[in-house]
């Protein structure tokens, strides 16, 4: 197993350098000079422009800029945001826990509902249940997130008053947020009701962000289950008179899980990159909106650093998924 | 609204109030995050709302709701005969805020004023390079060329000496970048090796002191009990950062916040009908325009420009592009600005007359480009749509329009070129409420090849605005600017299109809020019914 992990880690290196290069090149390829974008309608004089070019280091050859940036990355220094003047590293780790917390809730929600839905649909193939579940999944998959989020807010926050409109916790609670994970910090804040308020605020964003992964997981589980259910050993199990629950739940599902885990892993990766729309609508202080704002402002250090850190997070998730395969299917780790 | 939620919100507010007996809390659903808290480092209104308005003061201040300048941290000032020296007499007994990192040992004095400007001005000031300081406004208002020296006459008297007379100087000093910082705090932070604290945990003399900022989520302030103008009525001021306009509206309805900026145009009618909401409105201090390139034929002919202006159906633009949240512009400065010349008559929409005028000037089969900005701005919420309307209007007088657009940075850059092909849609939002900030920046000869997108240098107009710049008598300046607007209208370097209307929904419980023409959201003077 150790050798397996080590070999996976080795593949990290070229990917990591590739990402730094792409991140560096990406923002520079975009049209639009950061200084001119920053100055807006007001503009800058040519002398001032030159001063700023020197201050930001854009007057050096690109290769030197890349080398300095790479040295910084390897030393854990991702530079300072042009806009907020704060270290990119600090900004990322202030915001990332919010994204991570929401992503994990969304994926747990999607898995808890999607997996049983897929199994039930497969077992009842072609019946009413299957058709209803699969068409709901299709609707969920094609739903415009923006519209869906506003609809939920209007119904559940506006009309019914069951959930708050946006934010991570009610403004009445005020405590330090040392880990950045609101559920955890609320639990340890000692303030009565804080945890409940944080959970309350998570409900709608979790549903909105979990909708697409839920649909994907349900459909993937169904098709994987259908394939396994037609295998000979399942027929044998049934012939032996095993209870349907054991046949479907243990023998079939375990083997159907590999492609489903792939899908879950990929979804987590996508969610970690920041759910821009969900974060914007629910005023969720995560990295999605932070990255988009930085691209618009041509805030080079943030875009470069943010992309690299997100890529590393996604690589970690992929590694975890690879290891999970190994646990579920020993054949894979021996390859 | 749902009773249960009203009850819950009531409980929240009650609990917020529980911190101190009878404390009042106002929650403002702000549209974005501040870039930092040192207003001199930035240019965005969102940043000023969170920093310079609640936390800081300036030597002189704008009266909220007007562009009038009144004493602030300076009780009074005198200007020398030649307009080169401004002597400010500082208010005594003004306290800076205290925090867990800093307790002031003295009142605000001349050292603080000098430090606040020198850090932006002099490269040898230890704060000049802190937080990557680029001091965009200080430089943008040409303060480095304007200032000769800032001298301490005594602890409570400061003299600004200028290199040339500049009438808008006082208005400049009321701008956000001119906020007064505590030199004592700056020195303490420098000694502690954390000079960036000035930008992260601001200390000022303003009505509220900064408490905490959770990035992209919440900013908290508490009332300054020693505030020199009197303690504000709101004890706890909270900014709930809510980027989406529809969500801000839902939060207002649920009483999760009591004031919000920038509503969706589509929501305005519903808000006006909502019994819980007062809708305040005022023209913004901005102008959206179409600038012809007056250096290129046939647009070098004022009659051709005039004819095109007459071909433009501005009312249709207001209805379609602004959805009612705009007003037709006839002058290059907005009506809320002093010296606005209401006697100027706009070019009437008359395609037939326009056609005849073009024929008279020998212009036929004209093809031109209209540049449409790729971004939304208050003075132009949808430039593409506006360009399409102009295209169809101009087609009616036989002018064929091709719409072009570039990425925003490219757009700003390329549109400056003196040999630019085509007319450019752009606009401007005022900085200091002074007409010079519109007329000289956008239409002065110095701006050709830069911010003067019409590339228009017209000597009679230039003489008027240059004279106004060095005249300190307000009545005289007003007259000069009024004349300049007449000259502008005759020459028509732009088609003046619209001024946006700023809508500000405020919950019924809130009193005393005024829409500020300079765009800031200011809560001093605001109260909330319990």
Structural write-up:
Chain B: Belongs to the bacterial solute-binding protein 5 family. Chain B: Keywords: Signal. Chain B: One of its GO terms (biological process) is dipeptide transport. The complex is a heterodimer of chains A (335) and B (530). Chain A is mainly α. Chain A folds into 2 domains: 43 residues, no CATH class; 246 residues, MetI-like fold (Orthogonal Bundle), CATH 1.10.3720.10. Chain A is built from 15 helices and no strands. Chain B has 19 helices and 19 strands. The interface between A and B is large, with 54 and 58 residues.
- What is the CATH top level name of the largest domain in chain B? Alpha Beta
Please report which band the strand proportion of chain A falls in: under 5%, 5-15%, 15-25%, 25-35%, 35-45% or over 45%.
under 5%
CATH architecture verdict of the largest domain in chain A: Orthogonal Bundle
SS field, number of helical segments of chain B: 19
Q: What is the global morphology of chain A?
A: globular
Helix amount of chain B: 25-40%
> What would the average pLDDT of chain B be, to the nearest integer?
91
Q: Given the helix and strand composition of chain B, which structural class is it?
A: alpha+beta
Order of helices and strands of chain A: HHHHHHHHHHHHHHH
Oligomer: heterodimer
Family (chain A): Belongs to the binding-protein-dependent transport system permease family.
Organism (chain A): Albidovulum denitrificans
Pfam families (chain A): BPD_transp_1, BPD_transp_1_N
Keywords (chain A): Cell membrane, Membrane, Transmembrane, Transmembrane helix, Transport
């Amino acid at each position: 197993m150790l050798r397996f992990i080590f070999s996976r880690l080795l593949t990290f290196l070229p990917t990591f350098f590739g990402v730094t290069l792409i991140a560096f090149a990406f923002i520079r390829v975009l049209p639009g000079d950061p200084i001119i974008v920053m100055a807006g309608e007001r503009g800058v004089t040519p002398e001032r422009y030159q001063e700023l070019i020197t201050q930001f280091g854009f007057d050096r050859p690109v290769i030197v800029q890349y080398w300095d940036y790479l040295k910084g990355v390897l030393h854990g220094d991702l530079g300072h945001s042009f806009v907020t003047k704060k270290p990119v590293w600090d900004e990322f780790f202030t915001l990332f826990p919010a994204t991570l917390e929401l992503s994990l809730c969304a994926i747990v929600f999607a898995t808890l509902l999607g997996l049983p839905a897929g199994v039930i649909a497969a077992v009842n193939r072609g019946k009413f249940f299957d058709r209803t579940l699969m068409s709901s999944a299709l609707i969920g998959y094609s739903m415009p997130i923006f519209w869906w989020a506003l609809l939920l807010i209007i119904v559940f926050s506006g009309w019914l008053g069951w959930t708050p409109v946006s934010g991570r916790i009610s403004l009445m609670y005020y405590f330090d947020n040392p880990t950045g994970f609101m559920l955890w910090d609320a639990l340890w804040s000692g303030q009565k009701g804080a945890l409940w308020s944080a959970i309350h605020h998570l409900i709608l964003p979790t549903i909105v962000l979990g909708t697409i992964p839920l649909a994907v997981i349900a459909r993937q589980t169904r098709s994987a289950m259908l394939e396994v259910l037609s295998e000979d050993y399942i027929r044998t199990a049934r012939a032996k008179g095993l209870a349907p629950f054991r046949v479907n739940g243990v023998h079939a599902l375990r083997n159907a899980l590999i492609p489903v885990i792939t899908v879950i892993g990929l979804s987590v990766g996508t969610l970690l990159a920041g759910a821009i729309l969900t974060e914007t609508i629910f005023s969720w202080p995560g990295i999605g909106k932070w990255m988009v704002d930085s691209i618009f402002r041509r805030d080079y250090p943030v875009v470069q650093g943010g992309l690299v850190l997100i890529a590393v997070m996604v690589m970690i998730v992929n590694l975890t998924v690879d290891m999970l395969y190994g646990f579920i299917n020993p054949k894979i780790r021996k390859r | 609204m749902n009773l249960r939620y009203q009850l819950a919100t009531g409980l929240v507010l009650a609990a917020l109030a529980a911190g101190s007996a009878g404390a009042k809390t106002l929650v403002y659903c702000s549209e974005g995050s501040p870039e930092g808290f040192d207003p001199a480092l930035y240019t965005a209104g969102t940043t000023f709302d969170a920093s310079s308005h609640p936390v800081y003061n300036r030597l002189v201040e704008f009266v909220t709701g007007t562009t009038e300048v009144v004493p602030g941290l300076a009780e009074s000032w005198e200007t020398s005969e030649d307009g080169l020296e401004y002597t400010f007499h500082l208010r005594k007994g003004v306290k800076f805020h205290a925090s867990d990192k800093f307790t002031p040992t003295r009142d605000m004095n001349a050292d603080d004023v000098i430090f606040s400007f020198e850090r932006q001005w002099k490269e040898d000031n230890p704060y000049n390079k802190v937080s990557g300081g680029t001091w965009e406004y200080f430089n943008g208002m040409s303060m480095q060329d304007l200032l000769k020296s800032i001298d301490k006459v005594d602890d409570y008297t400061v003299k600004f000496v200028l290199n040339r007379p500049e009438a808008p100087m006082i208005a400049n000093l009321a701008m956000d970048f001119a906020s007064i910082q505590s030199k004592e705090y700056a020195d303490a932070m420098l000694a502690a090796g954390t000079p960036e604290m000035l930008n992260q945990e601001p200390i000022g003399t303003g009505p509220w002191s900064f408490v905490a900022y959770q990035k992209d989520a919440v900013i908290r302030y508490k009332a300054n009990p020693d505030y020199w103008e009197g303690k504000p009525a709101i004890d706890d001021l909270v900014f709930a950062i809510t980027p989406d306009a529809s969500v801000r509206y839902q939060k207002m309805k649920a009483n999760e916040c009591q004031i919000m900026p920038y509503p969706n145009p589509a929501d305005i009618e519903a808000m006006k009908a909502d019994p819980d909401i007062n809708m305040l409105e005022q023209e913004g201090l901005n102008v959206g325009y179409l600038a012809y390139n007056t250096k290129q034929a046939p647009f070098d002919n004022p009659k051709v420009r005039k004819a095109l202006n007459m071909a433009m159906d501005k009312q249709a633009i207001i209805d379609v592009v602004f959805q009612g949240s705009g007003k037709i512009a006839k002058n290059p400065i907005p009506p809320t600005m002093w010296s606005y010349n209401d006697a100027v008559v706009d070019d009437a929409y008359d395609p037939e007359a326009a056609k005849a005028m073009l024929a008279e000037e020998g212009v036929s089969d004209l093809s031109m480009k209209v540049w449409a900005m790729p971004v939304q701005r208050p003075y132009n919420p949808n430039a593409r749509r506006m360009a399409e309307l102009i295209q169809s209007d101009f087609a009616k007088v036989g002018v064929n329009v091709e719409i072009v657009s570039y990425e925003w940075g490219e757009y700003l850059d390329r549109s400056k070129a003196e040999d630019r092909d085509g007319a450019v849609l752009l606009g401007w939002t005022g900085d200091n409420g002074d007409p010079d900030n519109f007329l000289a920046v956008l239409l002065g000869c110095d701006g050709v090849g830069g911010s003067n997108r019409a590339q228009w240098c017209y000597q009679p107009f230039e003489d008027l605005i240059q004279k106004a710049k060095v005249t300190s008598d307000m009545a005289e300046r007003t007259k000069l600017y009024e004349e300049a607007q007449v000259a502008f209208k005759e020459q028509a370097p732009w088609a003046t299109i619209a001024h946006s209307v700023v809508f500000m929904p405020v919950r019924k419980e809130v009193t005393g809020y005024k829409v500020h023409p300079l765009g800031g959201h200011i809560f001093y003077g605001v109260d909330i019914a319990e």
